[in-house]
Amino acid sequence: MDPMPSVLPDGEPMPEDGALPARALEGAGERPLGFYLHVPYCATRCGYCDFNTYTASELRGEGGVLASRDNYAGQVAEEIRLARKVLGDDPRPVRTVFVGGGTPTLLAAGDLVRMLGAIREEFGLADDAEITTEANPESVDPEYLAELRAGGFNRISFGMQSARQHVLKVLDRTHTPGRPEACVAEARAAGFEHVNLDLIYGTPGESDDDWRASLEAAIGAGPDHVSAYALIVEEGTQLARRIRRGEVPMTDDDVHADRYLIAEDVLSRAGFSWYEVSNWATSDAGRCLHNELYWRGADWWGAGPGAHSHVGGVRWWNVKHPGAYAAALGAGRSPGAGREVLSDEDRRVERVLLELRLREGCPLELLRPAGLAASRKALADGLLEDGAYGSGRAVLTLRGRLLADAVVRDLVD
């Protein structure tokens, strides 16, 4: 689930003070609270990326001064203080913090620690809080990692994508093969308890052997978590234009399915277990708790341009441009661009959509009669696990994971 999609949805206007309906905070004490902090800066734009990110050249002109990296940590801290006002006397310490991007590590390590410090000061952190940042392998070194660890970060996610140079070139990734693996060792030396490597499969020109080599390189580096995502070619990206011009081929769904099966085979034999369709960990402790907040419909506040938030069935999203974001906060206004209040039916559908992707699956009691009928067919077709179904849960089999989107669609209908 993406807390920072590139295209903002429609919705009702956001109040200038960011106030939430009273119902949003009902029962809040029973739900965990997390923070997502979006850092929208990148040194270069990867060819496949359609996230809400900006290079230095893209921020020149209107709003450029306001959007400077130099004062960004202070702006995020200001939104965190706004969150404290909006959530009132909410007693919950923050359970997870995830700094994403963009490239968060383009900021000084002290800036990331400063943003975390604002959360600690305003809300407090749970004793076992998971504190994660994403990182570009070329934007960190041992000293940087040590400063993050000393500042309270205990989990880090490196964008590896591939171990093959020709695949990285198609993706316009700037790091060199081998650097992500070295980063894992440096993070371990700095004291990071949990380390993730992100991989992408299905890049034009990638072979099965290339994908196996990437998986084996990732495993050999010693992370306790691996995320593997099928490449999605988004309209408007450089990669989409190259494919349309015939410069590079496009892989199809069958290729993606084959690569997923390879991932499951290689990772499981190395001691990793899937816990979400695209995520594997070596233990329950290695699972990404922050992402589980999204998948389980908990509460999180997304700070930063374009970031999305959810509290008690109310979802809202911030203005996209860093200049507009800074201007709103500078004027004492919420940077929220719009919001929607989810109905009970909306929330039920979202639970099915998200929980079915988890290893624990979703309760059958969430399904309507048509969905239950579809689940029985999915069971007969080998897409759901027999044992779990008998215990009242819909859990995807390996074949079901390959067809997860279709299964989910049938069960919510």
Automatic annotation (TrEMBL):
Function per UniProt: Probably acts as a heme chaperone, transferring heme to an unknown acceptor. Binds one molecule of heme per monomer, possibly covalently. Binds 1 [4Fe-4S] cluster. The cluster is coordinated with 3 cysteines and an exchangeable S-adenosyl-L-methionine.
Regions that span the bilayer: none
Protein family: Belongs to the anaerobic coproporphyrinogen-III oxidase family. HemW subfamily.
Record NCBIfam families: hemN_rel
Annotated localization: Cytoplasm
Record has 4Fe-4S as a keyword: yes
Top-level taxonomic group: Bacteria
UniProt main location, coarse: cytoplasm
Residue intervals of the Radical SAM core domain: 27-273
Alphabetical UniProt keywords: 4Fe-4S, Chaperone, Cytoplasm, Heme, Iron, Iron-sulfur, Metal-binding, S-adenosyl-L-methionine
CDD domains assigned to the protein according to its UniProt record, in alphabetical order: Radical_SAM (cd01335)
PROSITE patterns, per database record: RADICAL_SAM
Record's protein name: Heme chaperone HemW
Region (Disordered): 1-20
Pfam families linked to this entry: Radical_SAM
SUPFAM superfamilies: Radical SAM enzymes
